[in-house]
Amino acid sequence: MTPRDVAGFLAELERRLGGSPERRAQVVAEIAEHLDDLVSEARAQGFDQAAAEARGVERFGSARRLARGLDRRPRAPWAARIAVALGALGLCGGFAHVQLRAAAPVVGVYVSNDQRYAGNPNSNPNPVTVLGQSHLVALDPVSLRVLRRGAVVLTGRIVYESLPPEAALVAAADFALNTALLVRTLQPD
Amino acid sequence: MVLGALQSGPAHGYGLVLRMRELSEGAFDLKEGTLYPALHRLERAGRLASTRSRHSGRERRVYSLTPLGEQALQEERVAWTLFSRGMRGVLGGSG
Questions:
Q1: Is-contact B50 B2, C-beta < 8 A?
Q2: Using one digit for the tens of pLDDT, what is the confidence trace for A14-36?
Q3: What residues of A are in contact with residue B36 (Cβ under 8 Å)?
Q4: Helix or strand (DSSP H, E) at B50
Q5: Up-side HSE of residue A100: CA atoms within 13 Å toward CB?
Q6: In 3D, which of A138, A147, A135 has the Cα closest to residue A182?
Q7: What are A48-83's pLDDT values in tens digits?
Q8: B36 → chain A, closest CA residue
């Protein structure tokens, strides 16, 4: 448990920080300066010394988590993976956005006849299905929550020729996110 | 946000918290436990530089934007403008 007094907090932070003694001393000095300001501010508001220190320490959260955050180094392979995923996210999001927004004949909204939804109290019996060229998601027509994604369901009837913007946004985000996750999964360790 | 708060000039950690609170009219009260890891990470990435300097009679570590940080801020600003414009269109807001 993180101490609630400044001296105890700083001692625990120093114990948990990595790196050279010089680096640890520099970081602790910087945090100590900030805590000084917070304690002075709380004292000026009428808190006693113990309460002022507790308030200051509270703003930093746990010493363990702070030390971990300060020590964190970006790992190149992981960073590269994230970059690929984000690139795919942008690309696919843009693609889906264009498809969903501009291509009314390609993108439609279906009321599915899929019997799996019928009589299921946890699902909408009348889901709206958003069609793209190679991707499909079923949205709850009221909440726009994604109910289902995957293989194209063609047994339905078209109720709209174009998407309401909220549905387009949800579908684009879902499409982009899943593609990004797929790219990340396919990255070698 | 940190980069944006530093565009008006260098600041130490405590000053940055106050500046963000003021600039956002109280909407953002960035906790120190979040701020310092972000500052150190941005410095390692070359977007911020830090120096020791005297403030109110005390030695403080002061952060400032580097040219790389200025460039990153500009990119963030463009991205945010596009995002907020899109959201306004979807939500139908006028602001």
A1: no
A2: 999 998 999 999 999 999 999 99
A3: 30-31, 60, 66, 69-70
A4: strand B48-55
A5: 27
A6: A135
A7: 999 999 999 999 999 999 999 998 765 555 666 666
A8: A70
Closest CA to A164 of B93, B72, B94, B90: B90
Q: Please choose, from the candidates A152, A141, A144, the residue with its C-alpha nearest in 3D space to the C-alpha of residue A172.
A: A144
- Record the pTM: 0.57
* B36/A contact by beta carbon, under 8 A: yes
Nearest CA in chain A to B63: A30
Say whether residue B76 is in contact with chain A using an 8 A CB cutoff. no
d(CA B15, CA A183): 41
Contacts of B37 in chain A (CB under 8 A): 66, 69-70, 72
* Residue B34 to chain A, least CA–CA distance (Å): 8
Query: Distance between CA atoms of A16 and A4, rounded to whole angstroms?
Result: 16
